Amino acid sequence: MKRITYLLFLTLVFPTLKGQEFSSFKAEQFDPVINYGTFNYVHLSYFTGDHLTYPNDLVDMFSKGYDALELRLGWQSTGRQMWQQLHNYPVYGLGVFASSLGESDIDSILGAPSALYFFFGAPWARFGRFTLMTDLAIGLSYDFVPYDSETNPANMVIGSQVNLYFNLNTLFMYQLSQRLDLTLGYNLFHFSNGRTNTPQAGVNLGGLNLGAKYNINPMRNYTKYTRPDYQPPIRTEFIKDPMPELKRYGELQLTVSGGTVLTEPGEAKDSDGMRNSTGLQKRYYTSTIVLEYAYLVARKVKLDLGLDGFYDGSLENFIPDKAPQEIGFDGKVMLGTHIGMQYLIERFAFYYALGVYVYKETPSRGKWYMRAGGRIGLTDDLDIHVVLKTRNGGIADWIEWGMAYKFRIHP
């Protein structure tokens, strides 16, 4: 629990930062009539709940649940840019997370993970003092105690000290005063490294959270000295402009990506075709090539249909009755087809695809797969692509690190 104590310490320190502030200012923010300044907030939340997945031989340990604290520095958008209006005036910012996965026996095996992350939240509805919204946090988690065949063999859950961090949270927010909001929500945590290291069952948590959000307009600290007769508002006034005409279009997208995977302990075969009894783990290269057609059907959504080609060097261990050296290129290739969608936020896109295999030589990857992640636009035609490929649902297969090139074929 020492990291939770550290996070509590940060909450005591943050009030001292209020006078110094943490926002930068742009020319359009110096309007004394509307939205003068920047609308920031500090949000502290407490989480508690249960482990959603765990090894069968550790049921008693995992039954104790988890506790966590989270501290966020956020920005409330005003609608100055059209994408903010399209997403119902979202919030976004940075956060820090600290947890205990249970009692001391679990923390000694798995660790007590902390995380640093970026978050984005979009409201579904506002009614009176209430707001219903969903936010997604993505970042890096650390302080896990990874699997080690000699020093930590009981950890058959996660094999890396540093992992990806995901938090999907749906919450109600109540405006208690101009400064203070109260929040209540239900969230899902996921910690994973995409089989970059193994074991890779992942840590999955679900439960309730309760929080308090303190709203700040940093410009108030300046104007109280320079213009004591005027105080900027603490909360934003949402700007509403006429929506531009929607211009639908279609495009071809070519994505090329690569990565690596590590076999689970005992998965790798020896040259005689038998599983290695020492728990040997081997690293292999993976790659993905995707050609898809995407069409903008709404201001925030593209739907797509595509063909997928996968290469996974570790498949040489899964062809029945054959040794690894007997497996050629065709035995390490899988082909599939998918339908998917892209949810657009300015130059960022959440990417999701659901696919089925049409060719593979081993049944070990199941019949279907998902690919979920994000893209960031470097230019109008080129995106950075980071996506987690899964097998048979939520089981991580590998992380795709690559680029997506887009070329429009009709307006």
Give the SSE map.
Layout lengths: L1 H16 L22 E12 L7 H4 L3 E11 L5 H5 L4 E10 L3 H7 E17 L2 E15 L18 E13 L4 E13 L10 E14 L3 H7 L23 E13 L20 E16 L2 E12 L20 E13 L2 E12 L8 E10 L4 E10 L3 E16 L1
Low-pLDDT residue spans: 9-23
Portion of residues in beta strands equals over 45%
Number of beta strands: 16
**Annotated CATH topology of the largest domain:** Porin
CATH architecture label name of the largest domain = Beta Barrel
**Termini separation:** 56 Å
What order do the strands of the largest sheet run in, or round the barrel if closed?
Answer: 1-2-3-4-5-6-7-8
Give the radius of gyration. 24 Å
| CATH class membership of the largest domain | Mainly Beta
Order of helices and strands: HEHEHEHEEEEEHEEEEEEEE
- Looking at the structure, what is the overall shape? flat
Question: Can you offer a commentary on this structure?
Answer:
It is a single chain. This protein is mostly beta strands. The chain has two domains: 2-226, Beta Barrel (Porin), CATH 2.40.160; 250-410, Beta Barrel (Porin), CATH 2.40.160.20. It has five helices and 16 strands. It has helices at residues 2-17, 59-62, 82-86, 104-110, 220-226, and strands at residues 40-51, 66-76, 91-100, 111-127, 130-144, 163-175, 180-192, 203-216, 250-262, 283-298, 301-312, 333-345, 348-359, 368-377, 382-391, 395-410. The strands form two sheets. It has an eight-stranded antiparallel β-barrel. An eight-stranded antiparallel β-barrel has the order 9-10-11-12-13-14-15-16. The longest helix is centred in the N-terminal third of the chain and has 16 residues, at 2-17. It starts with a helix and ends with a strand. The model is unreliable at 9-23 (pLDDT under 50).
